[in-house]
């Protein structure tokens, strides 16, 4: 007598399963826990398939099994999943066809709820050292923060984002949903912009028996920018690099100088890189250059700075009172 394989059930599954899906980010809830997909473009169909797979238990005696699932969609939230399975049991082929109904309840997840509510754990305050950050600096910094947070977000911290930006007279505040991400981003910003960072915290309440703090990261952009012309102890300096210290070229002697923060206290900005004008370089020899004053069209002979190469056709100049300085 052959074994009646038709009556062997290859697999077990409930007839219906109901799940909660976040309509904003497509996370789904499993045993009270929200499951977030790393893939941000996951579809409801994908979730239904994943849930169906989790609920189908294949018998251990089935060999060489294959399971095919096909999702249908009725109305708003009913997703019947057709199951077709084939396997070998005791050397005979066995087929299974069944239906698993997945019902979806749409519910905004905890993370999306917090984001929508403007939740934040930290504020990054973008400021300048004795100055206000320029529009361009704010734009650039904001882009850098976004990029850094996006990277952290992709690594799994879903609160790594700006929930609010606030423009103030003295600078811009970025409200960040994740403190860990804000801290991480600030460490990088300090390096990128040669900025200084001060951290402070404020007790905002208690959660699960622990104190909850809100962090503030004050990020101060350096007082001077690369390209600035500054006056320091009677010398005119062209700032070439900003890091822990400032490197500059003395425009009257060509000597490269390094200044510590303390020495910068008396320094004053004379002009920015954008204030420099272009002047035609008429001729040059080893020690001098003839340039045409762009305002008066007069030819002026000047000492040739070491940073001006022989093949130059024009130079950048800055006028301070009656004095003309060639800048780098
Ligand atoms: Zn969500």
Automatic annotation (TrEMBL):
Q: Domain Nmd3 N-terminal, which positions? A: 9-221
MF annotations from Gene Ontology? ribosomal large subunit binding
A Pfam cross-reference name: NMD3
Gene Ontology CC terms, in alphabetical order: cytoplasm
Protein known as: NMD3 family protein
What organism does this protein naturally occur in?
A: Candidatus Argoarchaeum ethanivorans
